[in-house]
Amino acid sequence: MYRRQLLRSACLAAALIAGAATAVQADTLDKIKKDGVLVMANGGAYPPFGYVENGTMVGFDIDLGNEVARRLGVQPKWEKIDFSGLIPALNSKRVDLLVTAMTWTAERAQRITFSTPYYNSGIAGGAKPAANIVKANDIAGKVVAVQIGSAGERFVRDLGIAKEVKTYNDFLLAFADVEAGRADVVVNTLPTVRYNAARRPSKLAVSETWDKRDVGINTRMDDTRLLEAVNAVLADLKREGFLDKLDAKWFQ
Q1: Distance of CA 1 to CAs 4, 85, 174, Å?
Q2: Claim to verify: residue 93 and residue 16 sit in the same structural domain
Q3: Which CATH number do you get for residue 136?
Q4: Which residues form the Solute-binding protein family 3/N-terminal domain (predicted)?
Q5: Per-residue pLDDT for 36 more than 60?
Q6: Domains identified in the chain, total number
Q7: Mean pLDDT of all residues in 20-42
Q8: How far apart are CA 227 and CA 221, in angstroms?
Q9: At 250, phi and psi to the nearest 5?
Q10: Coil, strand, or helix at residue 79?
Q11: 26 pLDDT higher than 90
C-alpha cells in the first residue's frame, strides 16, 4: 500500500508539472493577445537593422517587428536595450520577443529559441584600404574592433589570431575607432558593415563574406506557441514579398 501511495503521489506530481509546463507555453501568447501589446527589444545601435533617429527607433527590424505585431492583432511596444543585455531581458520576461538581428549560434540556441531565418548574412570586416583585409586570416596580428556579445566578437575570438580584441557596447563606436586609426578592422555581419561603410565619409573597404549566418526572431525556450505564431507570420511575409521589400528599403 505504501508503494502504491508513493506511485500515486509521483504520478500526481508529474501531472502537475506537465500542467504547469503547458500553462507556461500558453501564457505569453495569451497574455499578448489579452493585453493587446507585443513588447519587443532591439539593441538600437546597429544600423540599418535598428537604430535611433530623431528620438525614434527605426530600421529593418523595427519595420519587421511592427508588422509582426500588426498581424498578431496587437500594438507594438519597443524597448532599447544594450546588446549584451538582450538575452537576459528576454529570459527575465521583461520583453516578449527579441527582434534585433540576432544571428544563430549553438551557445545562444541553448538559452533562447530562434525563429525560421528572416535574413541570411555572414561575418565580414571593414578596414582602411591600405590594411588589405580580404580573408579572415588577414586579421592576424591586427587590433580588431567588435560589438560586445555580437557574432563578430565570437568569430574573432574563436579564430584566435588577432593581436587585440577591442569591445564596444555600440557597433558605431567600433566602426569609428577603425576610422580614427585606433583599431585596424571592425568585424560584424556583412550587411551592417557594408551599409555603414557606404554611408560614412571614410569609406572603409569591406571584405568578402567569411562565413554564413542565419538571423532570426527570438523567444524564450518554453514559449512554443508564440514561436509557432511568429514563424507563421514570417512564412506569410516571405511568400508575399514583404521581406524583399524591407531588404530593398534598408540595404539597396
Answers
A1: 5, 53, 69
A2: yes
A3: 3.40.190.10
A4: 37-251
A5: yes
A6: 2
A7: 81
A8: 9
A9: -105, -15
A10: strand
A11: no
Rg of the chain, C-alpha, whole Å: 21
pLDDT band of 20, cuts 50, 70, 90: very low
Distance, first Cα to last Cα, the chain:
74
* pTM (predicted TM-score): 0.76
Does residue 121 surpass a pLDDT of 50? Answer: yes
| Contact (Cβ atoms closer than 8 angstroms) between residue 95 and residue 39 | yes
| Nearest in space to 187 (alpha carbons), one of 175, 169, 203 | 175
- Are both 15 and 110 inside the same structural domain? yes
Q: Among 64-68, 79-83, 199-203, where is mean pLDDT lowest? A: 199-203
Q: Phi and psi (nearest 5°) for 114? A: -115, 135
Q: What distance lies between CA 86 and its chain's CA centroid?
A: 9
Cβ atoms of residues 14 and 8 within 8 Å: no
Q: Which residue bears the cell 506537465?
A: 18
Do 194 and 179 reside in the same domain of the chain? yes
DSSP character at residue 206 = E
The phi and psi torsions of 39 (rounded to 5 degrees) equal: -95, 120
Quote the CA–CA distance of 202 and 198 in Å, as a whole number: 9
| Residue found under cell 514561436 | 227
Neighbours of 252 (CB within 10 A): 5
Strand partners, 189: 123
